[in-house]
Recover the amino acids of this structure.
């Protein structure tokens, strides 16, 4: 039985000829929060997008090496199937503006035929919105367009949309970077609960050390396209082995 | 003494206001003229001017309706498909060629498209026909609608594509279900402009439909086959009747103009009401 939900083997990525990720051997433990932290432009989002193969929608990208999800090499699988089990929330809230709040959450289960009846769909939508801590705020206006929600609520709607597929792995690309601190806390809290209650594996990208330490079970520190250090969050936070990690945690590079 | 910046500001505002009025005045003039002269003509001759083929413009109205619907059926699906393709696969060679060709087609004088259809269709078939006219009109619409669709698709921010892909949507699902859905107002506007163009064009019809002004296209027993009959169109009728000496012909041209403008406005308002704008 594979202990890691995600494991990369000598992962190299080039975008338009630029070597963005260099020989990354990254791991994410099952049912835990692994934070990828690092300064802007270090390659953390690229690493995240290699895990659901979203990197491939950008033309001019070359990927070498292996990415295993629960022991299976995803680059020999169909990318659409991968993304159904490994869903993602982006940095900028991007709910589909032409659909209602309800439809935004329902679209995934509908497309992937996870439900057989309207009742089942309603149940999944409610479950996802509850898990994203948004249900109480939107239950009376599920047919409104998402643009009527605040930015933080929109981001939680995106979380619900990603959860509605009941993914095994949830990727979060700086999900709180563009929203207010209150909503940011709600999202962090929602994610911790998801790991605890549903056993979801979370990979969380952030560029703020404080957030990394606050949410992580494990931390991977990326600098300049290289994986500098990886380990349990406490260890990295209290005794970083690498000088770069220490400097980053103290806010000296970023 | 007033601040020169404030004076400049006042002059600027008055100038753009005056120029705006100057710009829209002719539009209202044309509209008013068409509505007044058109309704006068209808009042003078009665509804017969619209419903008769001998002393009225029925054949032109029927022809225009058939032409714009047929041209839209031929041209719009192709234009939408091509616009989606060029926007989505913009890096491919075929998309680049399609884009250049469609931009050139946009600049070709429409009378040439009429000539082209005359040569490849009317001459071999030995007869003018509504179908030939519709094909010429479809060629006029095609690049026009395509550009609108393309721009509507390209204006959708990439974050929504990413959202679609990140929940396992396929490329087709992202393009049709997400991007085209968000761009629906732009696409509908493009389709509407194309339809209006088909209704209003004259030149492509000069060599194609045969200006059959006193008979309706109904010589065949199978209704659909009647598109092979010659026919007429309102803009063509206006163009030719306006040159006639007799007042009666002028009145028919004015009545036709009124109907044309009314049809434009009806389609325009209907699309605006039916297709809601997506706020992003």
């Amino acid at each position: 039985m594979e202990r890691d939900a995600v494991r990369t083997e000598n992962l190299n990525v080039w975008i338009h000829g630029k070597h963005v990720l260099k020989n990354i051997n990254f791991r994410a433990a099952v049912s835990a929060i692994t934070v990828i932290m690092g300064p802007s432009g270090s390659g953390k989002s690229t690493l995240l997008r290699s895990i659901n193969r979203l990197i491939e929608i950008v033309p001019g990208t070359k990927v070498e090496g292996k990415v295993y999800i629960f022991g299976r090499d995803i680059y020999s699988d169909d990318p659409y199937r991968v993304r159904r089990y490994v869903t993602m929330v982006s940095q900028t809230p991007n709910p589909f503006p032409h659909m209602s709040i309800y439809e935004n959450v329902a679209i995934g289960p509908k497309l992937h035929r996870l439900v057989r009846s309207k009742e089942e769909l309603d149940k999944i939508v409610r479950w996802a919105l509850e898990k994203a801590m948004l249900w109480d705020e939107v239950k009376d206006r599920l047919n409104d367009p998402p643009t009527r929600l605040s930015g933080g609520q929109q981001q939680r709607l995106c979380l619900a949309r990603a959860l509605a597929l009941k993914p095994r792995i949830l990727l979060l690309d700086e999900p709180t970077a563009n929203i207010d601190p209150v909503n940011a806390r709600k999202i962090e809290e929602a994610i911790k609960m998801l790991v605890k209650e549903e056993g979801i594996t979370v990979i969380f990208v952030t560029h703020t050390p404080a957030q990394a330490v606050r949410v992580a079970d494990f931390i991977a520190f990326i600098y300049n396209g290289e994986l500098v250090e990886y380990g349990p969050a406490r260890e990295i936070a209290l005794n970083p082995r690498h000088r770069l990690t220490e400097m980053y945690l103290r806010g000296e590079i970023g | 003494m007033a601040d020169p910046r404030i004076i400049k500001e006042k002059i600027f505002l008055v100038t753009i206001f005056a120029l705006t009025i100057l710009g829209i005045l002719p539009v209202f003039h044309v509209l008013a003229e068409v509505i007044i002269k058109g309704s006068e003509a209808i009042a003078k001759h009665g509804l017969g001017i619209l419903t008769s083929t001998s002393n009225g413009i029925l054949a032109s109205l029927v022809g225009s309706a058939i032409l714009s619907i047929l041209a839209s059926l031929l041209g719009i699906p192709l234009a939408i498909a091509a616009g989606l393709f060029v926007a989505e696969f913009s890096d491919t060679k075929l998309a680049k060629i399609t884009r250049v060709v469609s931009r050139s087609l946009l600049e070709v004088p429409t009378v040439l498209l009429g000539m082209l259809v005359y040569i490849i269709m009317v001459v071999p078939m030995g007869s003018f026909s509504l179908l030939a006219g519709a094909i010429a009109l479809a060629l006029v619409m095609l690049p026009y609608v395509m550009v609108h669709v393309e721009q509507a698709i390209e204006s959708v921010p990439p974050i929504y594509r990413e959202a679609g892909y990140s929940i396992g949507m396929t490329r087709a699902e992202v393009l049709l279900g997400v991007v085209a859905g968000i761009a629906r107002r732009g696409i509908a506007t493009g389709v509407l402009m194309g339809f209006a163009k088909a209704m209003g064009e004259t030149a492509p019809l000069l060599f194609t439909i045969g200006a059959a002004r006193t008979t309706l296209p109904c010589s065949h027993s199978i209704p659909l086959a009647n598109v092979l009959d010659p026919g007429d169109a309102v803009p063509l009728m206006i163009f030719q009747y306006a040159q006639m000496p007799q007042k009666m012909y002028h009145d028919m041209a004015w009545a036709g103009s009124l109907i044309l403008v009314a049809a434009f406005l009806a389609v325009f308002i209907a699309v605006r009401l039916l297709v809601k704008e997506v706020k992003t």
